[in-house]
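Q: Got a minute? One more chain.
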Amino acid sequence: MARSSGVGVEIWCIENLQLVPVPRSSHGKFFSGSAYIILNTVLLKSGSPEHDIHYWLGKDAKEVDSALASDKALELDEALGSHTVQYREVQGQETEKFLSYFKPCIIPIEGMFSSGPGHVNTETYQVTLLTCKGDRAVHVKEVPFTRTSLNHNDVFILDTASKIFLFSGCNSTIQERAKALEVVEYIKENKHGGKCEVAAIDDGKFVGDPDVGEFWSLFGGYAPIPRDLASAVPEQPDISTVKLFWITTQGKLCQIETDNLSKEVLNSNKCYMLDCGAELFIWMGRSTSITERKTAISAVEDFVRSQGKSVGTHITFLTEGSETALFRSYFDRWPQKVEPKLYEEGRGKVAAIFKQSGYDVKELPEEDCQPCIDCSGTLKMTFYSGDCYIVQYTYAGLEREENLVYAWLGCRSALEDKADAISHMDAIVHSTKGNPSVAQIVEGREPEQFFSITQKLIIFKGGMSSRYKRSTAEKGIPDETFDGTKTALFRVQGKSLNNMQAIQVDQVSSSLNSSYCYILKTQTSVFTWAGNLSSARDQDLVDRMLDLINVCISHFLTDLVLIPAFAQLMHLPFHLQPTWQPILVREGSEPEHLWNAVGGKGEYPREKEIARFTEDPHLFTCVSTEGDFKVKEIFNFSQEDLTTEDVLVLDCHSEIYVWIGRHSNIGSKQEAFTIGLKFLETDTLIEGLSLETPIYVVTEAYEPPLFTRFFDWDSSKANMIGNSFERKLAILNGRAKKMEAPLGGSWKAYSMETTPNSYRSRSVGPNGVARSISPASSVLGSRLKSSDNRRFSSPPPIPTKLFSGSSPDLGDTAKGPPAPSINTTPQVHESQDGPNLNIYPYERLKVVSSDPVTGIDVTRRETYLSDEEFQDVFKMTRSAFYQLPKWRRNKLKMSLNLF
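A: Always. Here it is, folded:
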């Protein structure tokens, strides 16, 4: 069995008891009298190939050919190192994974395959009636060309010499009709050379349409279609009825009585059958011989016949170590992942096997961590672990300005603050032009893109939120909020100078790790600690991050309004600590003073941290009805699978994306986050997903590059209006251009018509900064600089009622590093809208005022100035100011401490 060195699909057919390769030009053409072997090879991001073997049995295939196909599939598995998954496919009952290789469909051909000279694998053209079932992978079956073949539930294709008719039963779904149109297009291109008419016929609608009359005339005239009998709903397999059998070397099945299925039940020297009702699994231990495996397969096929099971019963063959997620889901206990070292060792062995088998397998370079959106500029931000923050980021897209909104949830923040943060973010989306993508992220699980945006991030322990303060007081826990005077240990990490973080960790020796560098700030000294396994880049990041921490500490101490007497009381030099020079310490040469500062010398991780290999993304449909949450994988997905009526989840393991179609029934971003959390709880792939995995929510036609990078993206397809059937019909008839939506159109669920008035023009907080709904949390840090096409923007203010259980006014409880000056794009329309009833002096309106005004819209401080003082401060009239571009207005307000 010859094999090429590339990835993709390879097919062989059984002919005269020999395997014959099927030319690529004939892929997708299956003869009902033949048996085939299909090998699909995918190169994973981890660098190793993944194989799936299917053997397809035509309904008229000879029994000897079917048995030979089964044996050859097993031999191919052995040649590939027994790392494949094998599937038995029966004509008309194919798995969706198999059908996904041959989009949009396969249409079996009567007869047998022949590779002999002079034989042409084509059939004589004739009028045919086909039925199409499925809204993802389509099962196409030829049915008798009679009126009685039609029904109200399915979609039918009538293929004639001059025209193709699509008849849609009144009970069929939009998605089913749209998928059937793809089959129509396939038939038009492959059987008609792209030259024939296409007519869409709706069940029950036949007035004034000549195509309808022509359609029914082919059946001898119109007659009503009988009402369909109620079809039995297939029962879902009940895990309580799952049975496990040991298959002896003589082919006898012996049921194993056990209350709980676990991995430990399976013996590497034996073969087993797991009977799940509509699906059977054969598990073959790694130490079993190919003869034992063939015997097991024959025994299971005999079992199917003797038990009266359907000939289309799905049978999956698994060798130990290649178990699918579906198989593992039937077991109560199954190890999540192999150890990294074992994985690396196994990957090397597999690579050697494939090279010997003709495959060119190479190790992939380290994954490119370049940001997917414009992140140029210089930013510095500080967060607290006890608080929550809203960060709105505006960047230049391909055709318009785009927004990305993050809710960052501190790991020690109060549950009420976390819930309010999501609600707060949803309100911001309502008030923002377009449909921003949003993300919920938890401290410690931040996606790389977030770090690329924040660039220089410091995370302090403690918090400023009143809820955090109250919680620590009620529990009797010391408040660890960093104020510049306490001993603190920071772990420094990052990819580059534009992607680095300093995270305050517990000041104990177990917090150290040989793979990182650290900054230890004590009452009298500052140490930088370099782990033996850290790189020169890591050490460079420490030097840069130390400067930023020094600046933050300076702000802390300045806010304390230090005087000599107070400095002595706090044991601080009046010239402030950040002027001290750091003491560089390498692992193994630590002074006693350093160990004393972290509670004494102790054990900590000293082995090199192995970067987790990148998981390949998986796409799922998600349907939630009356408490029933169903997830279904879409194999070999593409942009075409993003159907506008659906809600989909793209699982990238380290983060997930919830995609919301324009015509789906999702009404808010909060509802989408709920679906994301349900998906994480379900953990369909049994990959150990954490409930703290970052969740992005993106809406159709507003997909950011973060999402589109996983597809071969065509922006014109993403900008079409109408349901999925209307779109595909327009494309098929050459009217796609007329279906394009105008740029800037809003998604129905987030249009301003559905946004409460109170959410459109209120204030976020007293500093005008993107901030947490925690009353004392804000996006803190030193002053920011950003380009015009890359900036953080202060979200439009939110009404007080969103801050449940907390005060909307910070007052004097929000002390900390000064809020950054941020180049913003206010969502409130700033204009000279009449005299302001409340007039305040400039000195009280400034951000740095010693007597600040409270209860004002902090994004429009300038509107509270009198006309005279406005002109005196801005050196221009109020009307001239509002004629300036927004970015010029913001810059000017920043320079005057009014922003």
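A: The two ends are 72 Å apart (CA to CA).
Q: Perfect, thanks.
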